[in-house]
Each structure stands twice: as C-alpha cells, then as structure tokens.
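Figure-free illustration: sequence to structure, shown twice.
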Amino acid sequence: MNRREQRALRAIEKNIKIDDPELAEQLRSFGGGGSARRKWYAGALAVVLLLIGANTGSSVLLLAGLLLVLALGLKWTFQAMH
C-alpha cells in the first residue's frame, strides 16, 4: 500500500476503535494464532533444512534454510518497527 492508503487505513482503524472498541479488539486479534503457528513451523523447517544441509553437505538445503531464517528475521524486524 502506498502512504495515502496507509493513512486512510489508520484513520478507519482509529474511527472503529472510537465507535466500537470491542469490534476493534476482535479485528485486531483476528487470525493472530495461526500467524504465530506458521512462524513456528517455518522456524522449525529452517532448522531442519540447516541441519540436514550441514550433515549431507548439500548447499541447496543450506541455502534454503538460510533464506528462510533471513526471511523470518526480516519479517520479525519489520513487524517490530510497526
């Protein structure tokens, strides 16, 4: 989304929070559990790929594991900033 769309979305969120705080909380927490579970699975998969790649000497598996770790780290960093 561009900046104008992000500002519009924040304004909508703010208005919902003012008009109906209960609905705002439900919308904020919607789908949170599945996201955390996917991150955990992705982290476990990254560790498995790294271990198998290191034990077999497979550079493809090592690279896949490293890229997955990097993607998870960037996602975590980006979410922490916002």
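We now fold a second protein in the same way, so the two outputs can be compared directly.
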Amino acid sequence: MRCRPWKENDSSAADERLAPARLKARRAVSDSCRPSPADLPEAVSVVGPVHGVLFLWTMAVLAITLYRRLLPIPHGAVVAIAAFIPFGGLFSHHLVKRRLAEGN
C-alpha cells in the first residue's frame, strides 16, 4: 500500500459520520509508512556511485582472471551475464569456487 498524506478536504470522505474514523485510519497508515530508497535522493547519490565502482571492479577482476587463463572463457561469460541478474553473483560464486577447486 502506498503512503499518501491525509487531506482534510478529501473528496473520498463522502459520509460525514465516517470522516473521523477515516482520518484516524489514514493517519495510522501514514505514520507506519517508511520512505523507500528511491525517496531518499541523498542515499541514492552515495550508494549509486559506490555500486557502480564495485561493478566496474568486478568486471576488471573478471577480465584479469580471463587474461591469466584462471577461468575458461565460457565460464567467464556466465559470470559476466550473472552480474546483470539479481542474485546471480551467488551462482557465479559457486561456479568460480568449484572451478578453482578443480584446478588445485
């Protein structure tokens, strides 16, 4: 449920007897609502660049790993694709860990 502020002259309060109850319920909902991360531009301006730098660092480490032939190119492609999928890093971590264990 999206939070929306209560307006005293809300047109949805058609029945005057229910207006105080609606006001109380609406205030309870708005008091319990928390802002989403998209509503915090200060946090987005800090976390966004940090996220971008970490992503570039991950791709650089992947490129170095492929250059040193520590990981086959098909596995590197899977790791790169998994970087764009939410929680894909969990799968790619398992893949890389298994591959490195085989090599030792």
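Summary for the second example: The two ends are 52 Å apart (CA to CA).
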